[in-house]
Q: What sequence folds into this?
């Protein structure tokens, strides 16, 4: 009898899993891909290309060498009554938009990331997390095989016990001599972002109707200039709501952690859905 | 009639030839033992996972054969030199010359590389990343005119005729006949041997991280600057490109050692020579700094004789050059601070590996 009692919950479990399986098979699904591209103040973004830092406000020449970030907890959302129902597209992936003009074809194509199959139907929007979700951020690169995006030691910082969620690096010709310099003068900037509290989510509301068996690509753009918006006056000494890149070229000191948080937060504003 | 005669002579001669070559070059090996046993690889805690190609599992016999080949001058045209001449075990497997010298006394354009932990360098081998795998790489030095300057078509028969190699190839790969010995199998064996050259995880740095040792104050200060741990010391930026656990992220950078106004000005194009992309010119793979105190001189062309010169280079922000990494910048380190970083680099030396290598 006792044995039987043990068996009861087990058999129930069996039923539950069996039903679940049936559901997925019977469901009519569609495939959703995400495509990422970048612009700088509206112009196509390339590393090693020269832009004006903040055109019309600060015309310093800048060029980037790196722009990449993790995306996590991406899902389609559906408005059901008072609440939103989430259908997960992917848990974690990595997007590098560091394409130089020699890689123009790749830049033009953007980075496409395959999401999971989801039930066909109408959704009310998409939710994207920028960074590594907290549960995954407890892990570290040595736990993953080399094919895994979380195996990147280039994007883990032991000092923070965190993945580096995003990198934005480049040089600015602050002294205006027409040369981007590293020797003897400080013209580089290296913004590395990360730690749990900087994980940023953005929900973009837009009706997305997925037909059965359809393969849909959702096109997303990031305008890199928007990452520089600073609402904290201590890092915006020119009082133009923009980061003072010359005085605060990094995100490593404690004080600069504020810049790290703000820039990560700015991803929610920098991202937009394209037609 | 004349034709028939010639045909006869030719056939006879051919028959003789084949007979001669059957003896050593085409010998049955199936009676010899083939009992492959997996080689137990020890990977220290916190290191990346060791990934092994499915078609080249690591076996004891494979590693033994690879080791013999690696050390055997038979690989060079005049039998004077082997892999080990440039990848010396007592120097963390690199030679001590700025740029390597091959059998003809000709100097290559690049410095030899440490083969310690080479299994984990998964973004392309060589300074410029031109070789995709250890199996592919091992084919190259034999025919490189600046290195072993031999030819596989000549070397393979030498291996087939050899007194010991056929049995070793049989034990490693289960071949039935000496005729199956080829350069691909030789390369696979060398790759197996290289793949197991892994740190023992007992460098002082590792022991400190495991709570079994403590840094001296100088080492601790150097560690702090290397990884920018606190704001007490300047940030030396090293950790971004030379991150734990291998002290490299396997990425390609221009770390500013060469002044170059345009990408065409780099004497050695590095990664750009492989990809053809002008924006990759002057970029090289950031090497591991484990055992760095043993592998002078430094950089792809061996331009710096000492770590002190390396630190001077980074401290001034390198030289202004196209596509230099923004992580290269004037660091404003004092003489003491530079010495402290070097003290920290000494904690990456894996003495055990260096002294007790089989």
A:
């Amino acid at each position: 009898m006792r044995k039987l009692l043990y068996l009861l919950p087990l058999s129930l479990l069996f039923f539950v899993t069996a039903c679940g399986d049936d559901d997925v098979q019977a469901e009519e699904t569609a495939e959703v891909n995400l495509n990422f591209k970048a612009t700088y103040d509206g112009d196509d973004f390339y590393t090693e290309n020269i832009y004006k830092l903040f055109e019309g406000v600060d015309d310093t020449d800048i060029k980037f060498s790196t722009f990449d970030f993790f995306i996590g907890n991406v899902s389609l959302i559906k408005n059901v009554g008072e609440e939103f129902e989430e259908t997960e597209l992917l848990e974690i992936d990595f997007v590098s938009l560091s394409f130089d003009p020699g890689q123009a074809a790749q830049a033009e194509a953007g980075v496409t990331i395959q999401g999971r199959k989801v039930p066909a139907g109408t959704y009310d929007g998409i939710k994207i997390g920028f960074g590594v979700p907290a549960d995954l951020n407890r892990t570290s690169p040595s736990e993953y095989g080399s094919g895994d995006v979380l195996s990147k030691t280039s994007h883990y910082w032991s000092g923070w016990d965190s993945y580096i969620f995003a990198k934005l690096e480049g040089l600015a010709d602050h002294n205006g001599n027409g040369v981007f310099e590293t020797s003897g003068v400080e013209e580089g900037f290296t913004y590395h972002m990360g730690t749990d509290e900087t994980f940023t989510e953005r929900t973009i509301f837009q009706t997305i109707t997925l037909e059965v068996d359809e393969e849909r690509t959702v096109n997303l753009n990031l305008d890199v200039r928007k990452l520089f918006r600073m609402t904290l006056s201590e890092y915006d000494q020119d009082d133009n709501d923009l980061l003072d890149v010359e005085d605060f070229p990094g995100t490593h000191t404690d004080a600069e952690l504020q810049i790290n948080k703000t820039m990560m937060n700015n991803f929610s504003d920098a991202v937009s859905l394209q037609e | 009639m004349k034709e028939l005669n010639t045909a006869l002579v030719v056939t006879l001669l051919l028959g003789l030839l084949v007979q001669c070559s059957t003896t050593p070059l085409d010998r049955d090996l199936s009676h010899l033992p083939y009992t492959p046993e997996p080689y137990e690889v020890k990977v220290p805690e916190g290191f990346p996972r060791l990934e092994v190609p499915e078609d080249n599992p690591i076996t004891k016999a494979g590693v033994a054969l690879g080791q013999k080949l690696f050390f055997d001058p038979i690989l060079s045209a005049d039998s004077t030199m082997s892999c080990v001449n440039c990848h010396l075990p007592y120097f963390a497997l690199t030679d001590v010359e700025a740029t390597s010298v091959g059998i003809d006394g000709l100097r290559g354009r690049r410095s030899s590389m440490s083969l310690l932990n080479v299994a984990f360098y998964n973004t392309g081998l060589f300074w410029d990343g031109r070789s995709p795998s250890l199996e592919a790489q091992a084919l190259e030095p034999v025919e490189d005119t600046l290195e072993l300057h031999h030819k596989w078509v000549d070397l393979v028969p030498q291996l087939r005729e050899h007194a010991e190699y056929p049995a070793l190839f049989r034990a490693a790969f289960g071949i039935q006949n000496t005729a199956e010995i080829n350069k691909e199998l030789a390369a696979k064996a060398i790759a197996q041997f290289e793949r197991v050259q892994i740190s023992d995880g007992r460098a002082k740095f590792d022991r400190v991280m495991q709570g079994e040792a403590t840094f001296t104050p100088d080492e601790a200060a150097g560690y702090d600057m290397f990884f920018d741990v606190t704001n007490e010391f300047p940030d030396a930026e090293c950790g971004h490109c030379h991150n734990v656990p291998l002290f490299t992220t396997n990425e390609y950078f221009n770390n500013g050692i060469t002044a170059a106004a345009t990408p065409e000005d780099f004497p050695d194009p590095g990664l750009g020579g492989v990809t053809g992309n002008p924006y990759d010119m002057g970029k090289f793979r950031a090497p591991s700094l484990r055992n760095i105190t043993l592998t002078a001189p430094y950089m792809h062309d061996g331009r710096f004789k000492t770590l002190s010169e390396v630190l001077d280079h980074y401290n001034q922000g390198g030289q202004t050059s196209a596509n230099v990494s923004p992580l290269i910048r004037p660091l404003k380190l004092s003489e003491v601070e530079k010495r402290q970083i070097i003290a920290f680099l000494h904690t990456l030396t894996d003495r055990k590996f260096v002294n007790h290598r089989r």
Notes: Residues 1-24 of chain A have pLDDT under 50 and may be disordered. Chain A has one domain: 31-274.
